[in-house]
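Deliverable D5.2: sample structural annotation.
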Amino acid sequence: MAVWLRPSKARGTHQVRHALRPTLASEGCRTSNEEADLSYNVEMRTPEQTALIALRGLLEAKDVHIQKLQGEARGAESSSEQRLDAVRQCCHAKIKGLQSSNADELHMLKRTLESKAHEAGTQSQEVSRKLRAEELLVTDLRQDLKRAESHAARAEAVTAKLRRRTEASRKDAGAALSKVEQQAEEIAQLQQDVDRERGMHSAASSAMQTRIEDLSGSLARLQEEVAALHATIQVQCLERIRLQEQLKHAQAAGMEKPAPALQRPEQHHQGASISTETTQDPQPDSPEKWAPSPAIQRRASTMGARAFSDLRPGKSRKWQA
């Protein structure tokens, strides 16, 4: 198995290499600066050093997994918030449009009703005034008839004239009454239209309220999923701290024991990493035997909160933009 070592991440690597240079020189190994400072033979490596390299690789894999979980959580929350904002804005726009249109229609219907009622009242007053005038006229004519009893010819002419005028007045009164009844029917129809529009407005408002409640439920479910992702991140951070503690113990054990003689390492481009072969596969401490202390648990919680802080609208650069 090829293992890449980075001297910048391994603590105490330079001190171990400087301490092993006399041993390498005494056994006939090459001790040039380029080869002795980069790597050593995997077959002569101690179990502590092998465990240290394995823990370092596991720690890097955990870091990559945590970054992947953070990206998924950030993308899920941003997309859900954008969809919820779009639906909320659409609902508010529809509600405002319905309210404005219904208010305008109600205002127009109200003005129409008021004008119709005013016209009906005016016509009723005119009819009443005409009726009172006709009654006064009939009274005057009756007085004239009493005074014209001695004048038969004149009385007959006056009687014919009164009959014609009375018939005309009755026709006018009947036409006015029929017109008033027609206007009353129109007022009743307008009232029915107003009631129907009010019912439609109430139904639309209830439907919008139901939609808003459904969206609120969806938001609550998304928040629960985000909380679950937060818990997963905390667990991963706790595992990372555990691996760091094991790495520290392994490094301490590696510093106490001197390494055996080194053989010629393989040189790679730019001197940034080393590839070696191993023949040993020591078993590190099992995770079940390791129990985190309260301080480590608090540290894991703090790291999880820092990793999750990018998902909040107030902290994320995407939300600030």
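Annotation notes: Residues 1-40, 258-290, 315-321 have pLDDT under 50 and may be disordered. The chain has one domain: 46-258+291-320.
The annotation will be released with the project's public dataset once the embargo ends.
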